[in-house]
């Protein structure tokens, strides 16, 4: 087994891609939770801004596509030649980057249209046409697609064992729902949007806590599976747990992403009305969501090149413990 | 005409890195090994060197994952897999996908570059004095190995006699 200090992870995709994955996931998750709430709870609070009707409740629930739209430029920022970003959709037949480009674009466009329609309830837009319902279902499907895509993009890299598993899209989906629901909680916090129904916020926090627990279980199973899959999979997990990425894992993912939010939210449920407690737990959870992507990205170690492995084997060159 | 491929004999490589130099001069006009399409991995203390080249794989992952179709195969030129610089956006997906660590990111041009057999006359082969890199017909690449094995058998037989 190699010494942890000798492990060299990939360095091509870094924090810029992590932000892109994070915002895309959080935006999509927020839209999924928001749409479901919109369907079943119907929170609404119409105010007037410059003589125009505006519904901040709907805005808070459905603003996910805007987060994705903020995140998308980060992918462009990471490109070598940024002005050619539109070329990125030319090969959807086999490339997940191209498919993702299309999925995200459709989600952003449809999502922003629905957000505008819901947040600005003009008379001429209110018609109960079934087209809007169909559009909502399609956009919800694309939101799921966006949340899962962030994991599929990495899974498609077959030469990195840490990423090449269906557990990763699942992990990112659960994390997207968890951070997304927290984004909704934070947006509505203190605004009184849910004040007509105090139980809504409580249920949302309960859902949030359940999602955090599920995420922790999926993360454990994911790391366990990767540790057992191959030598480089094991190295990646070791790098994340004991190597140079341990601060990201223990500090960013475990402490900020799981422990703090879970404990603070549990305390908050016993002291209702403590907005600051929920605010801090929310902020730590959102940071944890980012560190999860950063950790998974930065700990990815490629399978060793067969010729290099053969040479090391032949001449006994491996650095061992 | 049969297809030709690059073949490396690791034992002959002396680690002079002439291949990296001529590759960068041929493709970029600058003598900058970090911009070449071939890399020599070194175990300096042990004196072991391993030139890493593109295998132009039959099932090329770089080609599959490229979102712009910049990475494509040219059947008329030894079935080589090449990257069209005018289409490449520099997303580095091909670098991540390749199990042989081959396509390289050219920081100056901000695109991914890879071996293209120098349009049929690989400079790394022409300038490798140790003959560690060869450009052979795909059908005949096993012949040197078979000859070597036959020679070993012959030597063994001689020793027995």
In percent, how much strand structure appears in the residues of chain A? under 5%
Percent in helix of chain B? 25-40%
How far apart, in Å, are the first and last alpha carbons of chain B?
44 Å
Uncertain runs of chain B with pLDDT below 50, 5 residues or more?
A: none
User: What's the CATH C level of chain A?
Assistant: Mainly Alpha
Run of helices and strands of chain B: EHEEHEEHEEHEH
- How are the strands of the largest sheet of chain A arranged? 1-2
The tally of strands of chain A reads 2
* Multimeric status of the protein: heterodimer
Shape of chain B: globular
Q: Tell me roughly what share of residues is in helical segments of chain A.
A: 55-70%
List its salient traits.
heterodimer, A: 321 residues, mainly alpha, Formate dehydrogenase/DMSO reductase fold, two-stranded antiparallel sheet, B: 161 residues, alpha+beta, Alpha-Beta Plaits, 2 domains, two-stranded antiparallel ribbon, 8 strands, globular
